[in-house]
Amino acid sequence: MTTENTSTEKVELLIIGAGPAGYTAAIYAARADLKPVMYTGIQPGGQLMITTDVENYPGYPDGIMGPEMMEHFRKQAERFGTDIRFGVATSVDFSRHPHKVIIDEEHTILADAVIISTGASAKWLGIESEQKLNGHGVSACAVCDGFFFRGQDVAIVGAGDTAAEEATYLAKLCKKVYMIVRRGEMRASKAMQHRVLNTPNIEVLWNSETLEVLGDQTVTGAKVKNIETGEVRELAIEGFFVAIGHQPNTDIFKGQLDMDEQGYLITVPGTTKTNISGVFASGDVQDKNYRQAVTAAGSGCMAALDAERFLGAMMHKV
Asked: For residue 226, how many other CB atoms are within 10 A of its CB?
């Protein structure tokens, strides 16, 4: 293998992204002696780096902070020999083999197999207070963090199926759930809408937008404006959830890999195989349904096993 500071380098297996999926893929691949090279992307550790307490990942009976958990993943991947590097994949060419990936617009990697674990990013409202209190009462995952607000009052923003599902989930745990909907109707399916409207402790605020999330160290409230009347209302809440969707980090793969209408990579059912031989996708980049650390890790394991089989078959053909 040539050194990293040259313009081109050949590797057996390249892993793009360093969240639970990428690190798990690296652990399995390194133990299989595939000598994986991983580029972490802008946020090594993925969305868990902006998550505080993680209490639903098996093996941590007392819970663990998201960044600490990702440090454990990283150390385990390194222990088996994964070459972990900080860098961002800026373009790819999967039209021929070996596959070509450009890192930071200057370094070329030629890889026999590629595992894509670039994840998805939550969409946010874009208000300053939301970012300031992110992880301190502001969350983009009710299933992950709703548990911490048992018996409290919370608000959730969104009008689609995910928002409706998360609102009803929160209603089982919380005393009161305010659902902030920008229009006079929901985009959610009729069945989900009925469920929301028939849940007594959910109050839907129609034609409303959030002006500010209130609080210094933690969330204490939210300032909400009725778009039609101009009336501003202050909600007394301890938790503020944003459920306006996720954006898969797949821009550089457009035109190269099959995606759905939202940009999630499409894999062969029951596998992590994409439409390009030798390119695999794991974690939230191809999963818009579950989006949990444990399911991402599981698909990372699948991707490593799929890649190992692919590389083994390739070796036998040589």
From this structure: 14
